[in-house]
Write a structure and sequence with these properties.
438 residues, alpha/beta, Alkaline Phosphatase, subunit A, 2 domains, two-stranded antiparallel ribbon, 37% helix, globular, binds zinc ion
Length: 438
């Protein structure tokens, strides 16, 4: 049995704070996605953050993420499962295995007069959230996704950025959004938005990259819930923390944990809203898939993630800069160890670091380091060994995830087995049991 389920049986001192849920259909629906977070990541987060809000939810469901080809998770296929209720092939967005288009829960609830909000701390075309409003047959079709977003008529979007890479410049995205009637609002102006307007809030809300004065993911969630609930007709608010996945893919557990802590602010915002609308709010917290195949051997919290000041990328950039200034192997190794706070390495460990350092300096790639900086990865591995955790891959996995549910209509999730069941359960909780099959 999963450790996380055992943890669920512990009634925390704060549990009494949850309001009682009534028998009314869910009118205000929060679907919160901790991207790339499997059961072990939640266990690790609970180990390092004993006061986590995750402990307050008693309805937890072990959730399968196998796709239609039996391979396991990917952002687009899992996003499609969560948004449209169908397991599909890798890289399909809101399309079934045969390429037939699917209508998402968001569009179906919009037809029932619900307001729709979509928030991500990643790019606005991110494959986890895009299937809620766009149909595409490949993972990277930003033009198609943006044009669908413009036609969606959804009420609120927020993202860390409008584009990535060179495929579609941000200026072009801005132009399309404005001509579709959306107002682009900088993060610092969160409070200038009015109900009834269509807004796209641009804000780097990641814990590891947030600028002073800009809102955290939880602030954006609270702001969006306020706007979308103003007319009292109901909303579906989808919030995806893509940065957790980003760091798990790089096996950077410390940064992933800082982003998990940031995600707590999202849960907190949803719970505060629920305390004001106790009989009509549903909160569903899930993931799209697991990344990194994390395993945990240590039981006690060590606080290791608080000591790592830089993210994987920042650590790699610093080593690249030192390398350009022709520092010795030993200096590079010492820098890498300092950044992850590892002291007193054994001879065997030092040899591992020397090999990784030579690979890094020679720009050589080895499968065991994926496409990443071997010296940073090896230093993080030594640190992880000392703190009782281990990643086994840099990719997506088919490991189970956890779905936790609280509030109006929570009883409709009792049959939840796989991620593609989630939209049907939400629709039933909202009082539309056949909404996803119409
Ligand atoms: Zn994902």
């Amino acid at each position: 049995m999963l450790k996380v389920f055992r943890a669920a049986l512990v009634v925390t001192a704060a549990a009494w704070m949850l309001p009682l849920c009534g028998g009314k259909p869910a009118k205000y629906i929060f679907l919160l996605i901790a991207d790339g977070t499997g059961c072990r990541m939640i266990d690790l987060h609970l180990r390092e953050n004993p006061s986590s809000l995750f402990k307050m939810f008693k309805n937890r469901y072990k959730t399968e993420v196998i796709d239609a080809t039996g391979i396991g998770g990917s952002a687009a296929a899992c996003g499609t499962a969560i948004s449209c209720g169908v397991q599909t092939k890798l890289c399909r967005m809101a399309q079934d295995v045969n390429g037939r288009p699917l209508k998402s829960l968001a569009y179906r609830l919009k037809e029932q007069d619900f307001k729709i909000g979509i928030i991500t701390d990643s790019v606005i075309t991110d494959a986890t959230i895009a299937p809620f409003f766009a149909i595409a047959s490949r993972c990277h079709e930003p033009e198609k996704v943006i044009s669908a977003l413009c036609r969606s008529g959804f009420d609120f979007f927020a993202a860390g950025r409008l584009s990535e890479g060179n495929s579609l410049p941000a200026e072009k995205v801005t132009e399309s959004l404005i001509s579709a009637g959306y107002r682009i609002v900088p993060g610092k102006k969160l409070r200038t938005m009015n109900p009834g307007e269509r807004n796209v809030l641009l804000s780097l809300s990641r814990a590891t990259k947030r600028q002073p004065g800009t809102p955290a993911l939880g602030d954006i969630t609270a702001g969006a819930a306020g706007l979308l609930s103003a007319d009292g007709k109901g909303f579906l608010l989808v919030v995806s923390a893509g940065s957790i996945d980003y760091f798990n893919h790089r096996n950077d557990a410390a940064s992933a944990l800082r982003e998990m802590q940031n995600f707590e602010s999202v849960i907190d915002a949803a719970l505060k809203f629920a305390s004001r609308h106790p009989e009509e709010t549903l909160i569903v917290i899930t993931s799209d898939h697991e990344s990194g195949e994390l395993s945990i051997t240590g039981k006690r919290a060590t606080g290791f993630h608080l000591k790592q000041k830089y993210t994987y990328l920042e650590m790699s950039d610093r080593l690249v800069s030192l390398n350009q200034h022709k520092h010795t192997d030993e200096r590079l190794i010492a820098s890498a160890l300092k950044m992850v706070h590892v002291k007193n390495v054994s001879d065997t460990e030092h040899r591992r670091l020397q090999i990784a350092c030579r690979l890094f300096r020679a720009h050589r790639r080895l499968k065991r380091y994926g496409t990443y900086n071997p010296l940073v990865i090896e230093a993080m591995r030594l640190r992880d060994e000392r703190n009782g955790l281990k990643y086994s891959t840099f990719g997506y996995t088919a490991k189970h995830i956890v779905t936790v549910v609280y509030g109006s209509g929570e009883e409709h999730f009792r049959s939840l087995k796989k991620n593609s069941d989630i939209p049907g359960c939400i629709a039933a909780a909202a009082g539309f049991p056949d909404l996803m099959t119409r």
